[in-house]
Design a protein that fits this description.
The structure holds three protein chains of three kinds.
Chain A: H1 11-33, H2 39-59, H3 67-91
Helix pairs in contact in A: 1-2
Chain B: H1 15-46, H2 48-56, H3 60-85, H4 89-119, H5 127-131, H6 134-169, H7 179-203
Chain C: H1 21-26, H2 31-59, H3 70-89, H4 92-105, H5 114-133, H6 152-155, H7 161-187, H8 200-232, H9 245-279, H10 286-299, H11 315-343, H12 352-375, H13 377-383, H14 387-417, H15 423-450, H16 464-494
Helix pairs in contact in C: 2-3, 2-4, 2-5, 2-16, 4-7, 4-8, 4-14, 5-7, 7-8, 8-9, 8-10, 9-11, 9-12, 9-14, 10-11, 11-12, 12-14, 12-15, 14-15, 15-16
The chains are: A mainly alpha, B mainly alpha, C mainly alpha.
């Protein structure tokens, strides 16, 4: 039951991911420079989410990990999002 | 060892189990910051203009530099795990050292950033903050609290990685038993991921 | 690595790593000793908390000042709440019985991280000490109630800070216990014990552990924000600083409502163990119980707003939370029907643990049904902040979790101590408990409907009759609890030796010695049957 697969991620993969993360950072700065009004926060958050997805999948090895861990991470994020949505059910309808 | 984890109660090493434990801990950290993100979201919703104005005061350049520093440090510690798996102890140690150094640079940056704010009279409870709009006051409160708590996590991370460094150096953490290294990496990526959200929320919402 | 010079055939009580008997306890990483450490700490606090409750009831025996001033009364209900919630029922069943029995029930030698387990207990003690400091430091004990509602919690001159910090620390103990249990259940089940062959007490501990893990950090950060607001004037919840006090209530209940399920789910697990054993019959709807357990844990995460109907939330939030609250009642009802259906045509052996389990069903049902009165917005507005609410949650928490705790204690006592207790005294204690309990809390429902507010040390003459009844109930209840506890303590010392399996249970803990050996099993068992297969 304990044969954890020793999946070795090559250095190059990490460097590619790092480069993409930096590019995404620059893009997120550029997009908020444009006057998008209320959408600029949304835009910045979408970039942040993509970046976090890359960090989770590659740096944190989730892509190569057990299915159960992926499910856990998904569920925890879903629970948190649900809590935020329900909290806002109060604030946006006040 | 592999198929009889429970029998060896005195020398219990369970790679998957330890990693699962670390992930569970990361979930708690995520929700710890989650409470703050909810607070931020609610107050930004209630004070959109004030948050916009207050964010103008923060330097995007400093924030962006710190973002890149953390991203690079995340990559170095991730690579150190591969190095360990290739049994390249020397490179592992170098990469860990690089991670620690980058973390310290981050903290120094943060120190100067905070210092500049404080010298301008912007700190929790300051007279100047009592005069600005309540929304801006909330923004700065969240700014100091969230980045402060994040900085505390950086410090804990540095200590954690330093411990792993010494364990790699004295051979307790090696190519067959490197879960501690992997866990320190997971923790560090969490700290990075939180910053990935803090950066746009405080610096980019202008 | 303490290499075994230890004899693995003697009971874990005989294992001594240190000369000092105290060090043998407080430095032990054995899950059984840690479970007992929690038991002793929790029972100590329980005595204090129960006596505080009695004092409050004596104050309310007549209108006006009886035995204490208003401020003392405010401090008493705050302290009673902090002790009972943070120090007793939140850690309660998982920390005591989970620690002692979880590894045995799933066929493991210990939890996944024994050192972390010991650390959890130490953090618990540290948190308790810090919380208790609030009673002796500064300008008088806190008077905010256990909920620390903003903005009063940073306006009051009483010493709230240590209580907040203590509760924050206690949260970590809870988180680490939960983390440990999840990993233990995932990684250390005996060969053959698939998820659907695992007994129900471990299942409820699993669901509980997830709530501990995911909800506790939210209250942790909330308390930390109040601490920061008090100490550094960072604006979070104070309207004067732009904050929204209702947000505090949101964040507080995002944890504290799921915390209710941290308290009750393990009790439901205990009942699911006790009933099949004393009916010698497989549990009705094993999978339904598991599903409802997970569903309670999940839906329970989204119902926090029903504590805030009168706080000033939007109407949309009101009906949404009310709907979700009614949804969460469904899985609880499923369980009740499952337990009753298990009793049906079982060969019932009416022993003390079953008394307590049936007491649980009875009291918990009253608590659950009155909960629906509070879950519906219209009726809640009417009885909000009256003694109706107090009666409701004491039925659920004390009548539910408390009774479940005593059921567990009487059920596993022979396993934990290897001794039998006195049945006559146990029965006297049980009946006294039920009678005292009903006398104490039933009148509070009526008083609440008539409009008696909670958290007041005084009341109008028209409420006098009900309060007298209630206060005498409290005296009977405390006396019966004393009988129960004294009976168990003396039996642990001088009771007759108990057989290995006094109740003919078939879960794994009944297959090991009483008390168990250090590593529980000589060889790890291979599980082939379901946990409640009595026929085969």
């Amino acid at each position: 039951m304990d044969n954890h697969s020793k999946h070795i991620v090559p250095y190059k993969t990490y460097l590619i991911i790092l480069a993409s993360l930096i590019v995404l950072t620059i893009l997120s700065i550029l997009i908020t420079e444009i006057e998008l009004g209320e959408y600029s926060t949304a835009g910045a958050l979408i970039f942040a989410s993509v970046k976090t997805f890359l960090v989770l999948s590659y740096f944190m090895h989730l892509k190569f990990d057990n299915l159960i861990l992926k499910i856990f991470v998904g569920l925890v994020i879903a629970v948190f999002v649900a809590v935020v949505v329900i909290t806002f059910m109060d604030y946006i309808h006040r | 060892m592999e198929n009889q984890v429970h029998i060896q109660a005195h020398d219990h090493y369970d790679h998957e189990g330890s990693k699962l434990g670390m992930w569970l801990f990361i979930f708690t950290e995520f929700l710890l910051f989650g409470g703050l993100f909810i607070t931020y979201a609610v107050y930004k919703y209630m004070n959109p203009v004030a948050f916009h104005m207050a964010a103008e005061e923060l330097s995007v350049t400093v924030g962006a530099i710190n973002t890149v520093i953390l991203l690079v440090s995340s990559a170095t510690i991730a690579m150190s795990i591969s190095a360990m798996q290739y049994n390249d102890v020397k490179l592992t140690k170098r990469l860990l050292l690089a991670t620690i150094l980058l973390a310290i640079v981050f903290l120094v940056n943060k120190y100067f950033e905070w210092g500049a704010k404080i010298s301008h009279g912007i700190y929790p409870g300051s007279e100047q903050l009592m005069e600005v709009s309540r929304g801006e006051l909330l923004f700065y409160g969240l700014y100091f609290f969230m980045t402060g708590l994040h900085a505390l996590h950086i410090i804990i991370g540095v200590v954690f990685i330093a411990v792993v460094y010494f364990k790699v150096a004295n051979g307790t953490v090696h190519a067959e038993r490197y879960v501690l290294l992997e866990n320190s990496g997971l923790y560090w990526h969490l700290v990075d991921a939180i910053w990935i959200f803090l950066f746009p929320l405080f610096y980019l919402i202008t | 690595m303490a290499e075994p010079t230890i004899n693995l055939e003697q009971s874990f009580y005989e294992v001594k790593n240190y000369k000092s008997p105290i060090l043998n306890w407080i430095l032990s990483t054995d899950h059984k000793r840690i479970g007992l450490l929690y038991l002793y700490s929790i029972m100590t606090f329980f005595v204090v908390g129960a006596l505080l409750g009695l004092a409050m009831k004596l104050e309310l025996i007549a209108p006006g000042k009886t035995i204490m001033e208003a401020q003392t009364y405010n401090a008493a209900f705050t302290f009673h709440g902090i002790i009972m919630i943070f120090l007793i029922i939140i850690p309660g069943l998982p920390a005591v019985f989970g620690n002692f029995l979880l590894p045995i029930m799933i066929g493991a030698k210990d939890v996944a991280f024994p050192k972390l387990n010991l650390l959890s207990w130490w953090i618990y003690v540290l948190g308790a000490i810090v919380a208790l400091l609030s009673q002796v430091m500064g300008d008088g004990p806190p008077d905010t109630g256990w909920t620390f509602y903003a903005p009063y919690s940073f306006k009051t001159t009483s010493t709230v800070l240590p209580a907040l910090i203590g509760a924050f620390i206690l949260g970590f103990s809870s988180i680490l216990t939960g983390l440990n249990f999840i990993v233990t259940i995932h990684r250390m089940r005996a060969p053959g014990m698939t998820w659907l062959k695992m007994p129900l007490f471990p299942w409820t501990l699993y669901a509980t552990a997830w709530i501990q893990l995911l909800a506790t950090p939210v209250v942790g950060i909330t308390l930390l924000m109040v601490i920061a607001e008090k100490m550094f004037q960072i604006g979070f919840f104070d309207p004067a600083l732009g904050g929204d006090p209702i947000l505090f209530q949101h964040l507080f209940w995002i944890y504290s409502h799921p915390a209710v399920y941290i308290m009750i789910l393990p009790a439901m697990g205990v009942i699911s163990e006790v009933i099949p054993t004393f009916c010698q019959k497989t549990i009705f709807g094993y999978k339904a119980i598991i599903a409802s357990t997970l569903l309670i844990a999940f839906v329970g995460y989204f119902v926090w707003g029903h504590h805030m109907y009168t706080a000033g939330m939007s109407d949309t939030a009101l009906w949404l939370f009310s709907l979700l609250t009614f949804l969460v009642a469904i899985p609880s009802a499923i369980k009740i029907f499952n337990w009753i259906a298990t009793l049906y045509k079982g060969s019932i052996n009416l022993e003390i643990p079953l008394y307590w389990a049936l007491g649980f069903l009875f009291l918990f049902m009253i608590g659950g049904l009155t909960g629906l009165v509070l879950g519906s917005v219209a009726t809640d507005v009417y009885v909000h902040d009256t003694s109706f609410v107090v009666a409701h949650f004491h039925f659920v928490m004390f009548g539910g979790t408390g009774t479940g705790f005593f059921a567990a204690l009487h059920y596993w006592f022979p396993k934990m101590y290897g001794k039998s207790y006195d049945n006559t005294w146990a029965k006297v204690g049980f009946w006294g408990f039920i009678i005292g309990f009903m006398m104490l809390y039933m009148p509070m429902f009526t008083l609440g409907m008539q409009g008696m507010p909670r958290r007041y040390f005084d009341y109008l003459e028209q409420f006098h009759g009900g309060n007298i009844l209630s206060s005498f109930g409290a005296i009977i209840l405390i006396a019966s609890l004393a009988i129960v506890i004294i009976n168990l303590v003396t039996s642990a010392k001088r009771g007759k030796k108990a057989p290995k399996n006094p109740w003919d249970g078939i879960t794994l803990e009944w297959q090991v010695d009483s008390p168990p050996t250090l590593e529980n099993f000589e060889t790890i068992p291979v599980v082939e049957k379901g946990p409640y297969d009595y026929k085969k």
